[in-house]
Amino acid sequence: MAVRLNYWRQPLGAVPEAVWRAADEVEVLILAETGLTGRLPEQIGRLSRLRTLDLGHNALTAVPGQLGALPALTDYLYLHDNRLTELPAALGRLSGLRYLNVGDNRLAELPEEIGGMAGLVELRAGHNRLTGLPGSIGRLSRLRELWLRGNALSGLPASMAGLRELRELELRENDLTRVPEPLAGLPLLRRLDLRGNRITTLPDWLLGLPSLEKLDLRWNDVDASPHLLAELARGGCTVLL
After folding, report:
1. Phi-psi region for residue 173, left (φ > 0), alpha (ψ -120 to 50) or beta?
2. CA neighbor of 70 nearest in space, from 93, 102, 98, 41
3. What is the 3-state secondary structure (H, E, C) of 8-72?
4. Residue 63 contacts by C-beta under 8 Å, 6 or more apart in sequence?
5. Rounded to two decimals, what is the model's pTM?
6. What is the mean pLDDT of residues 91-96?
7. Alpha-carbon distances of 109 from 64, 148, 172, 177, rounded to whole Å
8. Range of the domain at 43
9. Is 215 part of any domain?
10. How do residues 17-67 score in pLDDT, each as one tens digit?
11. From CA 54, how far away is CA 8, in angstroms rounded?
């Protein structure tokens, strides 16, 4: 029998024993805003039927590699708004997971193994301390949305050119001085958010993004060519300066 356990906003401080007693049956486990601190127990790897895990809005400092041993974890994994400084490499074994949120933590990097998460459709890693992305991110061939606001990115790896399904890319409030060239030619990119960077010029290759609908460049000091802006508008792209 499938079990859904929802402890949202209950002041627990620890994972309830009832979770471990139902380890073979739990499919959805919500532990958001429950006062969890320190390291998540390794017993989490026993939840063999778990499809969704929400650990958001706590004070966790570490999660164990056993998370990567959850074969049914395919729907959602929320780790946002904790105190994580690193992610276990074993997360790369979650090849069927479609949604991962690790935003609002203290991550200086994403593990190279993240490229193994081939099923990801949406990845949220905003408001961390990322200065770069692993080259393996280009292997996320199903990724449609990538949210990276509020980091310290100065560029993107060349492998990003492989994200052929990418529709939405948020790079707001980073340390970019130019529009990252690995994005050139992405066929399905619709919205590109570059607000609050240090971009001063726009490249002509933007005209080669056939699906681009919105390019947001507010809070940059961009000296844009009127001809380029007119051509983007003619192609159906709204440019915000």
Report:
1. left
2. 93
3. CCCCCCCCCHHHHHCCCCEEEEECCCCCCEEECCHHHHHCCCCCEEECCCCEEEECCHHHHHCCC
4. 39, 40, 44, 55, 79, 84, 87, 88
5. 0.98
6. 98
7. 17, 12, 18, 20
8. 3-200
9. no
10. 999 999 999 999 999 999 999 999 999 999 999 999 999 999 999 999 999
11. 9
* Domain contains 104: yes
CA distance 3 to 34: 19
Which CATH number is 44's domain given?
A: 3.80.10.10
Report yes or no on 87 lying in a domain. yes
Tokens of 76: 């959602």
Cα–Cα distance, 47 to 45 (Å, whole number): 6
Question: Which tokens is 45 given?
Answer: 């790897």
Domain count for the chain: 1
3-state secondary structure 84-115: CCCCCHHHHHCCCCCEEECCCCCCCCCCHHHH
- Model pLDDT for residues 112-150, shown as the tens digit of each residue: 999 999 999 999 999 999 999 999 999 999 999 999 999
Rounded distance, CA 229 to CA 211, Å? Answer: 16
Q: What are phi and psi of 236, to 5 degrees?
A: 95, 15
Neighbours of 113 (CB within 10 A): 18
CA 40 to chain CA centroid, nearest Å: 21
Spatial CA neighbour of 115 closest among 53, 74, 163, 59: 163
Query: What CA–CA distance (Å, rounded) separates 139 from 130?
Result: 19
Closest to 176 in 3D by CA, of 139, 143, 217, 215: 217
